[in-house]
Design a protein that fits this description.
Largest sheet: 7 strands, parallel
Number of strands: 15
Order of helices and strands: EHEHEHEHHEHEHEHHEHEHHHEEEHEEEH
Shape: elongated
Helix content: 25-40%
Strand content: 15-25%
């Protein structure tokens, strides 16, 4: 199907006005090329008259070839009502006389219609009469409701011959809803940003708009072959902005197709569409089954299969596993982000095998020379019939403990040299207990090919950290299928 809705991406201009969003010229070029490959119709590169970075971006972009997208630049007018109409017309005519494709953004359009409908319409007609290719209605303050957006968009579509677009912000949480309401009222050009980046609470999120247009409204807007890469596009832009992806984003978030309640998982196991509005793979996402104190046996079975463990509802010890998980959750464990620890728990229950190593003793201390402090950790481990006793320094107690543990184990398990920690989180479960409160430690690790989470819980933060570290390295050995050398 050919696109019937034009997507105009303004991540590189409007998106950069968001809190904490900064792109280098190289970043902007990479994003522009990725958006072009994805198949959006327009990529707004910035405001070249406002800052040196955007000037440099456009200079560099001129040397690139874009296969699908047109590169757009932003400009604005601010003046009296009478002069405004003249400037709109003069600007559009000037650009058209130079062979440019012109999109007129009517900023504050919906507020303008509320205050003075006749003048607001006059600005749109001025742009149309001067030859604008698209007239875009902008909810610049982000405070409009879908019914009002639809009514004004319908009025504009009936009064104008030119293509009508929509540009919304998310100040009351309706940026996407307002864009869709405008499309249903006749708009055929939608502006927004990847992941909803933008000033204040953000712009209309194209990552939600695109699949809603395609799957729900049956209005194609990008090449159909691009849709399975939607999740990848979202994550790429987040990573380029140095942001962790939001797991709760619709369609592409890690939680978008996650199932936790036991009855829900049981239903999904039988009829997927009972709790999934679409196949996750259609947008490049995956289904996740979460295991917690709300879990039923179906959760364990489906999660085990997701982790590569062959488990059925008839597997012995299944009820024991579920009971154990619920007991641990009651003590403060949380397995939703700790697949590594959960996998080990299931495997231990199934196989009752000896662990690949044990920590016999450990000690953590701190020394200072009056200028700097260094943490030192000592670890003694047993592997099969052998032992290792190592000491390591670190920037903190956990870093030192991690270094000592790895140093003790790599002699037996060389594969652990490729494993590294990527994140470390600590949460106090019950702060009312003060310094005696139970602490939950969540560690994320990678071997370069995959990432996994492990967890530890204790009143002692070092003990909790060690537990999570041990699980992290043991799970790495499970992945590698390693045995002591």
């Amino acid at each position: 199907m050919s696109p019937t809705i034009e997507i105009y991406d303004t991540t590189l201009r409007d998106g950069t006005q968001g809190h904490g969003i900064t792109f280098s010229v190289a970043d902007k070029l990479r994003i522009a090329e990725r958006l072009d490959a994805f198949g959006v119709a327009y990529v707004e590169g910035g405001w070249p008259g406002s800052n040196p970075r955007d000037i440099e971006f456009f200079d560099e972009a001129k040397r690139r070839t874009f296969a699908r997208a047109k590169l757009a630049a932003f400009g604005s007018t601010r003046t009296s009502r009478e002069e405004n109409l003249a400037m709109i017309a003069d600007t559009v005519r000037f650009l058209k006389s130079h062979g440019r494709f012109v999109v007129y953004d009517a900023e504050h359009c919906f507020d303008g219609f509320t205050e003075d409908r006749e003048y607001a319409m006059a600005t749109l007609r001025a742009a149309e009469d001067a030859g604008a290719d698209v007239v875009t209605l902008c909810d610049t303050n982000g405070g409009s409701l879908p019914g009002d957006v639809a009514a004004i968009t319908r009025l504009a579509c009936e009064a104008l011959r030119v293509r009508v677009g929509i540009h919304t912000h998310d100040d009351i949480g309706l940026g996407v809803a307002n864009a869709l309401a405008a499309v249903e009222a006749g708009a055929t050009h939608v502006q927004g940003t990847i992941n909803g980046f933008g000033e204040r609470t953000g712009n209309c999120n194209l990552i939600s708009v695109i699949p809603n247009l395609h799957f729900k409204l049956k209005k194609p807007c990008v090449p159909v072959e691009s849709l399975p890469t939607l999740t990848e596009l979202s994550q790429f832009v987040d990573e380029t902005a140095n942001l962790r992806p939001n797991p709760r984003l619709p369609w592409v978030g890690a939680a978008a197709f996650s199932h936790k309640g036991g009855t829900h998982v049981n239903a999904v196991q039988k009829v997927l569409r009972s709790y999934e509005h679409i196949d996750p793979s259609a947008v490049g996402n995956t289904r996740h089954v979460l295991v917690s104190d709300l879990a039923g046996r179906s959760n364990i079975v489906m999660k085990a299969r997701e982790l590569g463990i062959d488990l059925t509802s008839d597997t012995p010890h299944l009820r024991t596993m579920l009971k154990r998980i619920k007991e641990l959750e009651h003590r403060g464990y949380e397995f939703e982000a700790a697949d590594g620890s959960l996998s080990l728990l299931i495997r231990r229950a199934l196989r009752n095998a000896a662990p690949p190593f044990t920590v016999d003793a450990y000690h953590v201390s701190m020394r200072s020379d009056g200028k700097a402090s260094v943490c030192e950790a000592t670890v003694k481990v047993s592997v099969g019939g052998g032992t290792a006793h190592t000491v390591a320094d670190g920037d903190g107690p956990v870093n030192a403990l991690d270094a000592a543990l790895r140093s003790a184990l790599v002699t037996f398990y060389p594969a652990l040299q490729s494993v590294r920690l990527t994140d470390y989180k600590v949460r106090i479960i019950d702060s009312r207990s003060g310094t005696a409160a139970v602490t939950r430690v969540l560690i994320e690790s990678t071997d370069g090919a995959a990432e996994w989470g492990t967890i530890g819980v204790s009143e002692n933060i070092i003990e909790a950290s060690l537990e999570a570290l041990v699980d992290s390295l043991e799970y790495a050995l499970v992945r590698a299928g390693d045995r002591p050398s």
